[in-house]
Specification:
Elements (H helix, E strand, L loop, with lengths): L5 H19 L5 H13 L23 E9 L2 E9 L20 E3 L21 E3 L21 E3 L6 E2 L13 E3 L4 E4 L13 E3 L4 E2 L15 E3 L8 E2 L12 E3 L5 E2 L13 E3 L6 E2 L12 E3 L4 E4 L13 E3 L4 E5 L16 E4 L4 E4 L2 H5 L4 E4 L4 H5 L3 H7 L28 E2 L7 E2 L2 E7 L11 H12 L6 E9 L3 E8 L12 H12 L12 E7 L19 H47 L7 E3 L1 H7 L8 E4 L3 E7 L5 E7 L4 H14 L10 E7 L2 E7 L6 H6 L7 H20 L5 E2 L8 E3 L5 E3 L6 E2 L13 E2 L11 H6 L1 E2 L1 H17 L4 E2 L2 E2 H10 L16 H14 L10 H14 L10 H20 L24
Parallel strand pairs: 2-3, 3-4, 4-5, 5-7, 6-8, 7-9, 8-10, 9-11, 11-13, 12-14, 13-15, 15-17, 16-18, 17-19, 18-20, 19-21, 20-22, 21-23, 30-34
Antiparallel strand pairs: 1-2, 24-25, 26-28, 26-29, 27-28, 31-32, 32-33, 33-35, 34-35, 36-39, 37-38, 40-41, 42-43
Helix pairs in contact: 1-8, 12-14, 12-17, 14-16, 16-17
């Protein structure tokens, strides 16, 4: 064996080092870097707070509010998994390119001044777990697409200007625990479909413009702990009796919701601790049964309640406030009320019975209990009883103080601290350390007064953060509207003579515990939010490098040396990588050619196999002037074959793996089905690394072209004609294809129109064959498969269960019918066409949604058309009609509609059909997997067509 020369050995060594370095030095996905650049540009402050957020290293600013983590690696690239830009006073908008960060888990833009709308592209981030946009000025509607995020744990969009309805698609969020959407302008009804949410614990929708009635179905949310809907417009609504079955509910707050009717008996809810039904128009008496012993707050004030005060209120040991003021209550205040409360030294109980018709009270027992405050002003007893005890209860008792600040201060004789950066640990032995501050808020606490819970809160928070109790100091707390409890917290380093500050990693750990909601929720303290973190003194970080004196420091010199070494190695690695990439590219091309050649040897009877040169000639070398469309698969060209036939050529994007699968699926399926309402496959090209499908040319484009206004608008008769034709094509797939086919992507862009506006269903790239019968002749009615299709058209049952059925196509076709009726897109500006039409239909406002571009229309035909469309879009699979029923109903509407074209097929067209049928007979004998050509109407007339055996 020959020895390697020194030069060769050196080269091998450099090559080895270069490859090792290259393998270790992975970089952020270039597409994501570009997306981050777009996000920066749209945020309004790209050169100030974000000035060190460099393009090549987007995650290098840990202390100025920019937190960006890159640690998910796929396909040789690193991906952004965490993006937090909070409290930076950003004033721009959210860029749609956010949707390109497809490994993102945390998206946090809280507490800025961001405007604009929520991009629907966020629905592309299937890994997203936390969506945090609260505390901005975002407007517009909630995107329907968010409802299809499979891993979303928390959505916080509160304190914005968001309007429009709650998307029904949010009922698909099977992993979401927190809906925090309060303090916006969200309108419409609460979707009853939210009852399907299996993990939801907090539903905060207070301070919006919600209307309609409370959905009775909400009770069945299995893990709901807090339902907070204060200050909405649920006009003439009542509290559903089913809400008494919420056996895990901790807090129910329906203040100022225009509710009427009586108060249900909530005594069956075992852990209910907070009940607020104030400022409504509730009538009748207060249920006399005993509420949960966890009850801290009962507020039934400002209603129209009558009868007496139940004596069961005397048996609530945790009670802090009982507000029954401004009602029509009469009789006596029950003896012993408040005396069974488990008072501590700082506990308080407020009994507010003002402005009722109370005539009797035993004041002697109440007046001597220091912790109880009772208010009776505005009752007859104050006029009838002049005793001093009653007078004290009927006067202005003021308000109960809940102490807004802590007074724990360390007093030391020494004076070695230098405030404000360093302070003594409160209640310590004079340890002088540097704290940092956190703004914190309880969003829906389960109590009225915090003082009794102060110590338990400190234990809860420090335990959750793995800190010592003395390291937390609650500097101030104050009640805000909601009610919500805001706090200023200070965190101190542990007592240690040698370390007086937190290290960076500990500050970062505590920050992430708050930011990522890693502190377990408490039943009594409820959900929390952190508002800011203040890092001053020794924690302050300057992102700009300071300039030193003249000359080079040792560090700079070392940096230059390392830089030279790295640069040399990098150049070597680039050369090696280029050589390797070129080799791999040639190898991949050769491998691909072998696969293509192997596949080309498979011939499909009746489907022509074109070569690349024929396709280039037909399209004038794919000239842009010949391009007629573009989709996710690739571009579509108009082409003229050598025999003069005009065709549409769908050319796959280069390197499209998804397209390759759809390519073979479409050839396989279209070669076995033939119907006048299905697009015909003329042939395919699988040559020179290219994949193309060749169809008959449809002169009038897609249905969506005409509905969107880019082509001539359609009148009602034409729309009905198109609907019937498309329905017959789908019916053929379901009933007469052998085996039946589920299309899986019915939509307006996949319904093509020929020169006579006959509908042709197209694009079978996502289609699936129905299951085959077993030995006993029975077959399941579904195919279990991953969810694919187009948002807005997706069958909700299919989305939830992954069970694809023929009724999945019915749902999608129902959406197409609604498009024909309204001209709307399935999803537009956060509005879902199914929900919008349903609401308009139920409220008698259907006419407001009719597409004006279709001109006059017969009302006797329009109503059954709309009814049919909505029946197809039912959430429940069994409630939808079959395609046979759809075709039958459309034919009935067709018969009663004046002005439709009922001219029989011309003889020339009949001759063409007969010729096609003869060709089919020949092709069927050659290929037993082909199905016959049957017109959809024949399926309803009792004709049983010949079907080739499988």
């Amino acid at each position: 064996m020959k020895r390697k020369t020194p030069i060769l050995a050196a080269f091998v060594f450099v090559l080895h080092c270069s490859l090792t370095l290259f393998a270790a030095a992975q970089v952020t996905d270039p597409d994501e870097v570009k997306a981050l650049q777009k996000i920066r540009q749209s945020l309004g402050d790209p050169f100030n707070n974000l000035k060190s957020w460099k393009d090549g290293d987007p995650c290098n600013t840990p202390w100025k509010g920019v937190i960006c983590s890159v640690n998910a690696s796929t396909h040789g690239y690193l991906h952004v998994t965490q993006l937090e830009l909070l409290t930076l006073k950003l004033t721009g908008q959210l860029a749609p390119e956010i949707g390109q960060l497809q490994q993102l888990k945390i998206l946090d833009f809280m507490w800025n001044n961001i405007t604009g709308t929520i991009p629907k592209e966020i629905g592309n981030i299937t890994t997203l777990e936390l969506l945090l946009l609260n505390g901005n000025h975002i407007s517009g509607s909630l995107p329907e697409e968010i409802g299809y995020l499979p891993k979303l744990d928390r959505i916080q969009i509160d304190q914005n200007n968001i309007s429009g309805p709650l998307p029904v698609s949010f009922a698909n969020l099977n992993t979401t625990k927190h809906f925090h959407m309060n303090n916006n302008s969200i309108s419409g009804q609460i979707p009853k479909e939210f009852a399907r949410l299996p993990k939801l614990v907090h539903l905060l929708l207070d301070n919006n413009n919600l209307s309609g009635e409370l959905p009775p179905e909400i009770w069945s949310i299995p893990n709901l702990l807090i339902l907070q809907l204060d200050n909405n417009k649920l006009i003439n609504g009542t509290i559903p009796s089913s809400y008494t079955n919420m056996n895990k509910l901790l807090k129910l707050s329906l203040r100022n919701c225009s509710l009427q009717g009586s108060i249900p008996d909530f005594s069956s809810i075992p852990f209910l601790g907070y009940l607020d039904l104030s400022y409504n128009s509730l009538t009748g008496g207060i249920p006399s049964t005993k509420l949960s012993e966890n009850m801290t707050t009962v507020d039934l004030s400002h209603n129209k309640l009558n009868g007496t005060i139940p004596s069961s209120f005397a048996d609530l040991p945790q009670l802090q406030r009982l507000s029954l003021d401004n009602n029509e209550l009469s009789g006596a205040v029950p003896a012993g009320i408040g005396l069974n409360v488990s008072f501590t030294s700082n506990s308080t109980l407020l009994l507010d019975f003002q402005n009722n018709s109370i005539s009797t009270v035993n004041a002697s027992t109440i007046i001597n209990v220091q912790n109880i405050t009772m208010r009776l002003e505005g009752n007859p007893v104050c006029r009838q009883d002049n005793s001093s005890a009653i007078a004290r209860l009927c006067g202005n008792n003021g308000t109960i103080s809940d102490g807004e600040s802590s007074n724990r201060v360390a007093t030391c004789k020494i004076n070695s601290c230098a405030p404000p950066d360093f302070e003594y640990i409160p209640d310590s032995d004079c340890f002088c350390v540097a704290p940092f501050e956190v703004g914190y808020r309880l969003k829906s606490p389960g109590f009225t007064y915090f003082t009794p819970y102060l110590n338990s809160f400190e234990e809860y928070l420090t335990s959750g953060l793995s800190l010592n109790l003395y390291q937390l100091f609650i500097e101030k707390y104050v009640w805000e509207e909601g009610p919500r409890l805001a706090m200023n917290l200070k965190f101190f380093p542990p007592k240690n003579q040698s370390v007086r500050i937190f290290n960076d990693s500990e500050v970062q750990r505590i920050r992430q515990m708050f930011a990522e909601w890693k502190i377990i929720d408490s039943d009594i303290f409820g959900p929390y939010e952190w508002i800011n973190i203040t890092l001053t003194g020794p924690y302050k970080r300057d992102n700009e490098e300071s300039s030193g004196g003249s000359g080079l420091s040792k560090g700079a010199l070392a940096g230059i040396v390392v830089g030279v070494i790295f640069g040399t190695t990098f150049v070597s690695s680039v050369i090696v990588v280029m050589v390797m990439k070129r080799h791999i590219k040639h190898k991949n091309i050769a491998s691909k050619r072998k696969l293509l050649e192997a596949r080309k040897r498979v011939k499909v009877a009746g489907v022509k196999d074109f070569d690349f040169d024929e396709m280039a000639l037909a399209t004038n070398n794919f000239n842009t002037s010949m391009q007629v469309g573009q989709g996710g698969y690739g571009k579509v060209y108009k082409g003229i074959l050598a025999d003069g036939m005009v065709v549409a050529i769908k050319r796959a994007q280069e390197g499209s793996l998804q397209g390759e699968k759809e390519f073979s699926t479409e050839i396989e399926l279209l070669s076995r089905v033939h119907h006048r309402n299905l697009v015909s496959l003329v042939g395919y090209c699988d040559d020179q690394g290219e994949q193309m499908l060749v169809y008959e040319y449809m002169a009038n484009g897609t249905l969506r072209d005409h509905l969107s206004g880019s082509k001539k608008p359609l009148n009602f008769a034409q729309r009905l004609h198109i609907a019937l034709g498309a329905a017959r094509g789908i019916l053929y797939l379901h009933n007469e294809a052998n085996p039946p086919i589920f299309h899986r992507d019915i939509k307006a862009t996949n319904i093509l129109l020929d020169h006579r506006f006959n509908a042709r269903v197209a694009d079978f790239g996502l289609s699936r064959l129905a299951p085959l019968p077993d030995l006993e002749g029975s077959a399941p009615g579904h195919v279990s498969t991953v969810v694919k299709g187009t948002p807005g058209y997706l069958d909700p049952e299919y989305f939830l269960t992954h069970k694809l059925t023929d009724k999945s196509d019915v749902y999608s076709f129902g959406v197409v019918l609604l498009e024909l009726l309204t001209g709307m897109h399935p999803i537009s500006h956060g509005k879902n066409i199914v929900r919008e039409v349903n609401m308009a239909y139920q409220s008698g406002m259907m006419i407001s949604l009719i597409d004006l571009k279709m001109g006059s229309y017969p009302s006797e035909s329009l109503e059954p058309f709309a009814t049919l469309a909505l029946s197809c879009c039912k959430d429940e699979t069994d409630a939808r009609p079959s395609m046979a029923e759809v075709v039958h109903q459309l034919e009935q509407i067709f018969k009663i509609t004046p002005g439709v074209d009922t001219t029989p097929i011309q003889s020339s067209e009949m001759d063409a059909l007969m010729h096609q049928k003869q060709s089919m007979v020949q092709m069927t004998s050659q290929n037993p997997y082909l199905s016959s050509n049957v017109m959809g109407s024949e399926l309803l007339s009792g004709t049983i067509p010949d079907i080739a055996p499988r």
